[in-house]
Structures are given as C-alpha cells and as structure tokens.
Specification:
about 300 residues, alpha+beta, Hypothetical Protein Yjia, Chain: A,domain 2, six-stranded antiparallel sheet, two-stranded parallel ribbon
C-alpha cells in the first residue's frame, strides 16, 4: 500500500460561518473529489453547547437546525472520506486552535491543491482585525479592566499636571511664592540682604516639599479631570460590555442565530459610536472648563 500524504493546519481566530461560506467549502471539496475519481459523500457532525451530538448528511439539513440562542451550535466538523482521498474541516468555540483543516491522500499533488483551496475558503470565514480578536478572546473582567484602568490613570495624571502646570515653576515654588520672591529682589542692597533672600527662598521650598511629600489626591479632583475621567469610565464600561456580548468567538449563522447576529452587529456599531462621542465630548468639555477657570479668580 502506497504511503499517504497528510496535510494539517490549525488556526486560532474568531469566525463567522454561514450557509454561503459552507457552500463554497463543499463546492471545492466536491470538485476535487470528483476530479480524483472519488465518491463525495460529506457528513456533518454537530455539537451543541449542552454537549449533545448530532450527525446530518446534507447541508440543507444542517441549515435547518434551530441553532437556538440558549443552546447554539458550538462545534461543526465536515468530513468527506474515501480510500484514496479524505478531508476534514472543523470549526469550534475553543480558546485556541479552534479551526482545523486536514487533508490526506495517495497523490501528494492532489492533497496539496485540495488543502490550499480549502484553506483559502476557511480563511474567508475568519474575522480579521485586532479588535475582534482582542475582544473575542476568553478574557476575564480583571484582564480587561487592568490595561484600561492603567491608561485611564495615566491620562488623569497627565491632565492634572497639564492643567495645573501654570501653578508651579521648575524652581520648586508655587507661582505666588515665586512672584513674591521676585518682588523681593528689588529691595536687595547688601550681602546680608542677599543671604536673607536666599534663605527665605530655600525655606519656602522646604516647607512646600514637606506639605506635598504625601500625594495630594485633592489636586486630582478638578472639573477638567472629571470631564477627562468620565468618558474614560464610559469607554471602559462599553468595552467590557462589548467583550461580553458583542464579539462572540464562534458564530454559526443559521437558525435563530441568523437574526441574532445581525442584532449584535448593529449593537456594537452603536456602542462604538457612543465611545467616540463620549471621548470627543469629554475632551471638549475639559478644554472648555480649563479655559473658563482662567478667567475665574482663585479663592
């Protein structure tokens, strides 16, 4: 018996599989099986979320499944096999290697060509882009919150120093203390006056550093920072919501999931629009409040 050639590849990616994409995969398989003189009798092995296994022999029967929202299809394996040629394509909702393509046969050329054609069709079902891959992964709430909170904290801290930067000088004094020290220069006449002036400046620096040695959380509680933090909090909530509900990892678009997936796509477009709107309004409001405060005398 001649040695068989086997080609297998595994992919990790979200996917959306519908009747049209399945038809193209089956068309490629049938064409190659027919040209190789092999009978083409595909079988579809379906696993539901509750673990129930089904086996159907026709695409029409597969697409006629209810695929309910509470108990949807979680895995689909397409198998066609004869003595001289065999192929299997698997889609499931596991975290890694959730798509598998395998082809075996006696003729290496036929195996290679069939594998390449099936792989091309399978890649069309994969969802491209870093956002679906990131939000469609198996992330916990903590893993989603940590980078978002870090970014939000950095933005808030940057905003604090940007919006309050006019109150401090690089010499380590507040603006009011620096102005007072500058006015004191006009009365300096003797060496003793210079020493006293320097002593007074250094004393104020030490006092200021002592009062600010501990983090002053009050400086973060400003209106500009509020308008910066609010859209960030809204964005964090929206991202967590979308990761949980708007980016399913494995989508089999037939039965009840046909209409449901259309609703998911519309929902996530609306949420992304809300995030953009919140960020724009937050930045504009923060800049407006900062500009307005310049005209309000400090208490």
């Amino acid at each position: 018996m001649a040695k068989e050639t086997v080609q297998t590849n595994r992919y990790t990616s979200p996917f959306v599989l519908d009747g049209a994409k399945l038809t193209r995969i089956l068309t490629v398989l049938e064409g190659r099986f027919t040209s190789a003189g092999a009978a083409f009798n595909p079988a579809f092995r379906v696993t539901l979320r509750n673990g129930k296994n089904l086996r159907v022999a026709a695409l029409s029967a597969l697409l006629a499944l209810d695929n309910t929202l509470k108990n949807p299809v979680s895995s689909l394996e397409i198998v066609a096999s004869t003595d001289q040629l065999g192929a299997a394509v698997t889609f499931d909702d596991t975290e890694r290697n959730n798509i598998v393509v395998a082809v075996r046969g006696a003729d290496p050329k036929v195996v290679g060509e069939l594998f390449a054609e099936v792989e091309e069709q399978v890649e069309r079902a994969m969802v491209r882009g870093w956002v679906p891959k990131l939000l469609g992964g198996a992330w916990s709430i903590t893993e989603l919150l940590l980078p978002l909170v870090l970014v939000g904290g950095l933005v808030a801290a940057a905003g604090t120093f940007i919006f309050s930067g006019s109150e401090r000088l690089t010499v380590g004094l507040t603006k009011a203390a620096a102005d007072e020290a500058r006015r004191g220069l006009t009365g300096i006449r003797t060496v003793e006056d210079k020493i006293n002036w320097l002593f007074e400046v250094e004393r104020k620096k030490i006092e200021l550093s002592a009062t600010e040695s501990e983090m002053d959380l009050a400086k973060f509680a400003t209106w500009p920072n509020f308008f910066l933090a609010l859209p960030i909090l809204i964005a964090v909530g929206c991202v967590i919501y979308m990761a949980r509900t708007c980016y399913p990892r494995a989508v089999f678009v037939w039965g009840d999931w046909d209409e449901h997936y259309g609703n998911i796509v519309s929902k996530r477009r609306a949420v992304w629009g809300l995030i953009v709107l919140a960020l724009v309004v937050g930045i504009v409001s923060s800049l407006f409040v900062t500009s307005f405060q310049r005209f309000v005398p400090p208490r």
